[in-house]
Design a protein that fits this description.
Order of helices and strands: EHEHHEEHHEHEEHEHEHEHH
Number of strands: 10
Helix content: 25-40%
Radius of gyration: 21 Å
Structural class: alpha/beta
Length: 398
């Protein structure tokens, strides 16, 4: 069963009614998260939290904070992995980027602007002032507390001027370890939050190391929203297909070999791969068709209509669970390992998460489809717990 961790950040426990000394009417709420890149999970988790709060009658907007160092508009940035360098593949990647990057970025920006209320654009120099527009700021989800953010104030709301309600929802720290260089800063900033929640155990340990309090682990925002209003019709008439959505390196043993194993069980189906052209990517020469310029709604429909999903993506895995799709998830990098190990334990899907092709056979990952009835029950319990956290943190009356 789900470990319902005790809510005791800043002594704001359920026992005292979930109210802190700073608690106030929710007023105007802002969400501060990684919403700005051409990353399906990042955009859709932003959308899900936004829609959940809006649906509860909260006046909410997405704080359109984009770091000045962000290079999302530079088409030829992130050409590929150094370990995979050769001239032919470099030229292939450049052609892909030249052809599809601008279309992809336009679709993401259109989705953000048409689906959510965004603030005026801000960066490091103007965020501090813009926070004064809000009574409550919710930071999260995603890897907002990762190593690259810990020396900065933005996602830790480290601004003395902001006296509003500070809440984190499903924040991810990437790793649990904290350097001495940042400990005092982080202790001061996290200690000033009214409520803290995290997305996984290593982030829980991170917070506990910093402030000595063990925050609750809540569900990713994408599990709070059903997405029924999005992404219908793009692939509804398609023949059966294996969907490949890979963000990082190949699995140990190669993705080609893993897909051969999937085909051995599911048949010689077409293989469709989704690639984000603005990011680092491998050439998916094992796929029958590669989609380079999808928007978030098209991505949703690709998963919703797939016969099988193969992915190294955290959100690719979560949406496979949401849409009851047989799947195989893998991790080839330490950064991805922690979140997958946590998912495996939390929703009892360890059989379907591997680190090598050899492990597919060893675990029997393809021999049975996931028990979605049990998974749904676990997710619903976690979802209900997470909603209670948000209700208490934001003063929402059910």
């Amino acid at each position: 069963m789900i470990d319902l961790d005790v809510l005791r950040v800043k002594a704001c426990s359920v026992a005292n009614g979930g109210q802190s000394s700073k608690m106030r009417n929710i007023g105007e709420a802002g969400i501060l998260t990684f919403h700005y890149s051409t990353n399906f999970g990042g955009v859709l988790q932003s959308y899900a939290l936004y829609k959940f709060l809006e649906h509860r009658g909260i006046s909410v907007e997405l704080i359109d904070y984009i770091p000045s160092t962000y290079h999302g508009q530079k088409v030829y940035r992130n050409i590929g992995f150094k370990s995979d360098f050769n001239v032919k593949r470099l030229l292939q990647r450049m052609r892909v980027k030249h052809k599809f990057c601008h279309t992809s970025m336009h679709k993401f920006e259109h989705f953000r602007r048409s689906s959510m209320r965004l603030s005026s654009g801000v960066d490091e120099s103007t965020l501090r002032v813009s926070l004064g527009d809000y009574d409550t700021v919710v930071v999260g989800s995603d890897q907002i507390w990762g190593l690259g953010q810990r020396g900065k104030p933005e996602y830790f709301l480290g601004f003395d001027e902001f006296k509003g309600n500070k809440v984190s929802y499903a924040a991810d720290s990437t790793i649990a370890e904290v350097s001495e260089e940042h400990i005092d800063k982080l202790r001061r900033e996290l200690g000033d939050f009214d409520r803290i929640s995290v997305r996984n155990k290593h982030s829980q340990k991170f917070v506990e190391t910093v402030i000595g309090e063990k925050p609750p682990i809540v569900a990713d925002p994408t599990l709070l929203w059903d997405f029924d209003e999005l992404g219908r019709g793009f692939m509804s008439d398609s023949d059966p297909y294996i969907l490949v959505y890979v963000l990082g390196k190949d699995i140990s043993g190669s993705n080609r070999k893993a897909i051969e194993e999937i085909k051995r069980i599911y048949g010689d189906l077409e293989v469709y791969a989704i690639v984000i052209p603005t990011m680092k990517f491998n050439i998916c020469d094992y796929a029958d068709k590669v989609f380079y310029d999808l928007g978030p709604e098209e991505w949703l429909d690709m998963i919703r209509n797939a016969t099988f999903v193969y992915t190294d993506s955290f959100h690719g895995t979560l949406f496979s669970l949401k849409f009851h799709k047989p799947f195989l998830a893998y991790y080839a990098e330490e950064m991805r390992a922690t979140r997958f190990i946590d998912l495996a334990e939390r929703y009892q899907i360890g059989r379907y998460i591997v680190s090598s092709v050899d492990e597919i056979e060893a675990k029997g990952s393809l021999l049975e489809t996931p028990d979605f009835a049990t998974i749904d029950q676990l997710i619903e319990e976690h979802r209900a717990f997470s909603i209670r956290f948000l209700e208490e943190a934001l003063g929402i009356v059910s």
